[in-house]
Amino acid sequence: MTRPVMHLVDPKTGESDPADIRRVFDSQLATSLAWRESTIAERITRLKKLREAMLARRADFYAAFEKDYRKPAIEVDGTEFMPVLEEIRHTIGSLKKWAQPKRVRPTIGTLFTESWIEYQPRGRCLIIAPWNFPLNLCFGPLVSALAAGNTVILKPSEMTPSVSAVMAQVIADTFPSNEVALFEGSLPTSTALLELPFDHIFFTGSPAVGKVVMAAAAKHLTSVTLELGGKSPVIVDETANLRNAAEVMLWGKLTNCGQICVAPDHVFVHESVKDRFVAECRKVLADRYGATPEAQRACRDLTGVINQRHTQRIAGLLQDAVAKGARTLTGGEVDVAGCYIAPTLLDQVPRDAAIMSEEIFGPLLPILTFRNVDEVVRQINEGPKPLALYVFSQDKARTRRILAQTSSGGVAINQVVLHYAQGNLPFGGVNNSGIGNAHGEFGFKTFSHERGVLKGGSINAAKMLFYPPYTGLKRRLVSQFLGMLK
């Protein structure tokens, strides 16, 4: 078995060696074939080793997140460690049930046979993770892939180099590279990986890059799971508990400084409660981050923007909106050099502002008003299908109607973001916001091939009916079966 190894990165380019990538990919073939017969106990042992290695470097992760983008330790616990540890706990407790072959009943055409579904590992898998939750979105899918019995190559984002370095140490300490390997780098490294004929690719990132991944996978007819993003809308109607809506929505919006694929992107508020809702939002912002711009700027409970380039991008959205007539209700302060943008509420944002078509991925929140919820449904349906839809309402019939008339990856009612943490729900997008599901049993199935198996019995009904010669008796019997199918 290959010794654990840290894969070298060229210090000049920051890229992994394509020859090393190919060598590791080839080395995983024999392992992936052997792991088709791996036991549940063996897979659980791998998950426990991963958990132990993660926890052993907990302090290193805190320091790395602080260095990469000033992320508070409690957010590291809540949004990075907890989701992965819960995924491991849930999987260990349920894997035997998930992996059990599932018996299925015979159909009329398959009488006197037995059938079942077996769950086979897909084989060699590639996981490409983004920068916004680098540990969570790299190791979370890894848990599902290992549970299903696959070998894995991981590619974290180059934009969180400190966290990626700690993850690389965890993987090297835990697995030989012919089982699991991690390669650091940017576009050239990703390109080298995507040229290889993996058995499955799990990508988390933007729709634009998702299209590139899907095109590369198509060359090998590799199956893909795409966890993408989009503009997730919030609806606050006149029956909503406004204090709760403000508290919950701003938590989801400003955790990780809004750099969340399921963050509330913009909010539709009924015109009759708009002023009260804005007042509640102001109170929440003051309570959590400070009542003055100076206090908010000094607050260490707000994660920083990942880098200056993204800070400039978000600032550009703000500037464009204001130039086109939007009004800043609170916030608006920008420090590109310090990777800081204040939590900002925007009013009177015109439809042609860039912020209304681009995913914000930052601490800006456009507030839009409506009279009739049908207007909101129409606007949502005019755009790409979002990853999440959030509804704050006490009107059950209206809520049900909104859900029936819209399409999104997931929904939360009187809550935001938390559906991601519910491991018994599928998490994924639809069309522009993603393909496929993750988490829990859905993640296990994502990394498994569901193979149908049929076993013939002592009576061969097909021979009695369909093997030539086609006698009059066979024609009459087939005619009777057809009658049963009406």
List the helices and strands and how they pair.
Blueprint: H1 18-34, H2 40-56, H3 58-69, H4 73-99, E1 102-104, E2 113-121, E3 124-128, H5 136-147, E4 151-155, H6 161-174, E5 180-182, H7 187-194, E6 200-204, H8 207-218, E7 223-227, E8 232-236, H9 242-254, E9 264-270, H10 274-289, H11 293-298, H12 308-323, E10 327-330, E11 334-335, E12 340-341, E13 344-347, E14 364-370, H13 373-382, E15 388-392, H14 396-405, E16 410-413, E17 434-435, H15 440-446, E18 448-456, H16 461-466, H17 472-484
Parallel strand pairs: 3-4, 3-6, 4-5, 6-7, 8-9, 8-15, 9-14, 13-14, 15-16
Antiparallel strand pairs: 1-2, 2-18, 7-17, 10-13, 11-12
Helix pairs in contact: 2-4, 2-6, 3-6, 4-5, 4-15, 5-15, 9-10
Task: Give a brief outline of the structure.
This protein is an alpha/beta fold. The protein has 17 helices and 18 strands.
What does this structure look like?
Helix content is about 45%, strand content about 20%. The protein has about 475 residues and is an alpha/beta fold. It has two domains: about 20-230 and about 440-450, Aldehyde Dehydrogenase, Chain A, domain 1 (3-Layer(aba) Sandwich); about 230-425, Aldehyde Dehydrogenase, Chain A, domain 2 (3-Layer(aba) Sandwich). The longest helix is centred in the N-terminal third of the chain and has 27 residues, at about 75-100. The termini are far apart. The model has no long low-confidence stretch (mean pLDDT about 95).
